[in-house]
Amino acid sequence: MAAFDDIHARLRAVMLDNAPGQVVGKDEAGDLVVRTATVDPKTGQPGWFGTVTIKRSYVAYHLMPLYTDAALSESVSPALAKRRQGKTCFNFKVVDEVLFGELALLTRGAAGL
Fold first, then answer.
1. What's the CA gap between 6 and 84, in Å, rounded?
2. Which domains, and CATH codes, for the chain?
3. Which of 16, 27, 65, 112 is deepest in the core (most CB within 10 A)?
């Protein structure tokens, strides 16, 4: 769906612009995977930072540090929380400038900026 391509492009930019120092693991049409620069001692692989993926009925923005950073997770506004699925995922069917701005701030916080 063309609208999802635009949403993905916008959210991809949010992720990449606000997570410097992280490592791009995959960047293909409809699928961005960002890993941490540090290695997870359990797996020996770079840790998960976030993903932006086109799904069948929405675009998913995963921000993995929300799983472990309670303060960051609790800072999510009620409006953005309505888009939340689980602890780390936000789903979008339309561009929302205000919520994309909030995701930018959350992503910067997760990246330690």
1. 20
2. 2-110 (3.90.1150)
3. 65
